[in-house]
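User: Sequence recovery, please. Input:
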């Protein structure tokens, strides 16, 4: 068993990464159903939440079946981040996570997300202020450093632990790398194997198969894995990893019916939660992922991304199940 403060997780838990415009409640639902142990909201702007922005407030929607769940925040001003943490307490998540890893320019240019990796003293003081301001367990997600010359995450991990964070997730790239190249887990392993560290350490970056999950578990000794992009359109990754770690066997891949059913459930919740216009619109980014590898799917995908009525889309999903029944998915796509 792994514990984050008083939150009990199974041995070697699998975490769903917070992903902007992806890990909303409908997406989280299908990941939970397929084995995610701990999930996070999309990251929430502290400035937006303080201004009572509708989009930021909507990201605070959590549901009982999702527990344990964390709310992730980002920002560059200590006072605003503290106020944000206090607002988040009112929705009663299980933990509060601070995003010190987002590499996109519109976030980092303000000194938020991975931008704060240029100012470690501020990172430490901001974290300490948030820990003191909330009763929620505070965790952090960050990167190896700003660039190749500033990979100081081993020292940073100690300092963050010393001021009271309850768990740490490290993405194995620098901010400059963005999502390019391969994630370097060497320093993640060094943090986990540092005798001074006693909080859970989770690794993130490039985990896209059960075999790689086992390899990295054994090589780096982390307490669990955080999975992001590999779960988009493929929530089965969580249970596939769990099954492989437990038995050494690979589960059969999801069938066309499995994929269409997960897509349908995701779609219906999207419409229920966001309404028939936004729910339909924002679901369009997911169809290619759910049916990735299905040959000759282009025409059907065009229908899915142009149809506007929920009933028409549900009908189309049923048609796809019939049309492609028995067709094998391509593995090299």
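Assistant: Recovered sequence (333 residues):
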């Amino acid at each position: 068993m792994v514990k984050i403060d008083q939150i009990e997780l199974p041995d070697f838990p699998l975490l769903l990464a917070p992903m902007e415009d992806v890990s909303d409640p409908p997406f989280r639902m299908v990941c939970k159903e397929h084995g995610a142990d701990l999930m996070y909201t999309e990251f929430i702007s502290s400035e937006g939440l303080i201004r009572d922005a509708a989009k930021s407030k909507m990201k605070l929607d959590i549901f009982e079946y999702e527990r344990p769940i964390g709310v992730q925040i980002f920002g560059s001003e200590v006072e605003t981040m503290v106020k944000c943490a206090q607002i988040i307490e009112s929705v009663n998540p299980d933990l509060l996570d601070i995003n010190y890893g987002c590499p996109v320019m519109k976030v980092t240019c303000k000194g938020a997300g991975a931008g704060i990796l240029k100012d470690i003293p501020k990172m430490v003081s901001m974290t300490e202020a948030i820990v003191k301001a909330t009763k929620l367990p505070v965790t952090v997600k960050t990167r190896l450093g700003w660039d190749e010359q500033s990979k100081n995450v081993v020292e940073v991990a100690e300092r963050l632990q010393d001021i009271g964070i309850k768990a740490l997730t490290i993405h194995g790239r620098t901010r400059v790398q963005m999502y390019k190249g391969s994630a370097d887990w060497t320093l993640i392993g060094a943090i986990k194997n540092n005798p001074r560290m006693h909080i859970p350490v989770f690794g993130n970056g490039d985990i896209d198969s059960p075999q790689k999950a086992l390899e990295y578990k054994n090589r780096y000794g982390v307490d669990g894995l955080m999975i992001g992009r590999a779960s988009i359109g493929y929530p089965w990754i969580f249970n596939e990893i769990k099954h492989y770690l437990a038995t050494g066997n690979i589960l059969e891949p999801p069938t066309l019916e499995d994929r269409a059913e997960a897509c349908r459930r995701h779609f219906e919740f999207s419409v229920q939660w966001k309404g028939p216009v936004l729910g339909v619109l924002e679901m369009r980014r997911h169809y290619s992922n759910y049916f990735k590898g299905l040959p000759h799917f282009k025409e059907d995908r065009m229908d899915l991304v142009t149809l506007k009525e929920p009933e028409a889309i549900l009908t189309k999903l049923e048609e796809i199940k019939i049309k492609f029944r028995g067709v094998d998915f391509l593995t090299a796509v």
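Residues 100 and 113 are 4 Å apart (CA to CA).
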